[in-house]
Amino acid sequence: MTYTISKQDGQISSTEGLPIRYTLYYPLSNEESVPVVIFLHGFKGFKDWGPFPDACIELAENGFAVVAMNASRCGISDDPETFDRLDLFADNTLSQELEDIRSVLEAIKSGEISTGKYPFETSRIGIVGHSRGGHSAIVAAAEYEDITCLVTWSAVADYNKHWSQAMIDDWNKEGYTEILNTRTEQYMRLNKSVLDDSVENADRVIALRRVKDLYIPVCFIHAKEDEAVPYTDVNLLYENCPSTEKKRILIANTGHTFGGAHPFNDHVLPEPFQEVVDQTINWFTANL
After folding, report:
1. Is the peptide bond prior to 263 cis by the omega test (within 30 degrees of 0)?
2. Number of domains in the chain
3. Does 119 map to a domain?
4. Does pTM surpass 0.85?
5. 189 belongs to a structural domain
6. Digit-coded pLDDT (tens) for 16-73
7. Does residue 173 lie in a domain region?
8. CA distances from 29 to 32, 60, 63, 79, 117 (A)
9. b/e per residue, 4-37, with b = 16+ CB within 10 A?
10. SS3 state of residue 78
11. Considering the domain boundaries, does residue 174 fall inside one?
12. What is the pLDDT of residues 123-137, one digit of tens each?
């Protein structure tokens, strides 16, 4: 059954008092309640990036309420596609991202995030994330028992192995490093707090460590030709996950974003991206 969907934008406060902006996509269902899926963007990403909204719409059309969230320090403020708060981005730690997910979970359970008319089944909450969002989704699923099903898209296994030596040298010498966003041509600063957090709190915030605590249904999806996060990361995650309900899917002939780009104005999803969305819907339908 395909549902008609609606959407609404809103925001809640982070533990630091910063806005966590979200878009809620929900099916206009006659059912008593529907399960919820939290959607996480990746590094230098945002909830409205490329075909992400199309993916959320398809999930909602298949009977899931979807909360696509921007991390409070992702660098996006009122303009949903512009990095105009690079001061916040500079201290976007893995720990704060985890706290943001907790805030969204609590808002879903309390009804602060709701449709008002179409209720959520808060005992059935899934999470899906791309790249760094996949890394955070793993950690959140291990940390918060309210999350009962997980899908990752091209997830990073260990962020402490993802930092380059040049970045670490900058942090140790200057106290910050800068990365170029090739799409916007902005240099985006990351303060040493980002490195310190991922090292000092590694047992809590590093996905490869936390995946060992996962016993819920997990589907790891990765691009075989991923140029940013090698598919060996998904092998590590899969092999270290103790869940008896787990699946690893490698998508051939595509890269890190599965053919998606920003802006995305096509009416049809790229074939690899559509396969990812279909596999995600299948997994949540069977397991959430």
Report:
1. yes
2. 1
3. yes
4. yes
5. no
6. 999 999 999 999 987 779 999 999 999 999 999 999 999 999 999 999 999 999 999 9
7. no
8. 8, 10, 8, 31, 10
9. ebeeeeebbebeeebebbbbbbbbebeeeebbbb
10. coil
11. no
12. 999 999 999 999 999
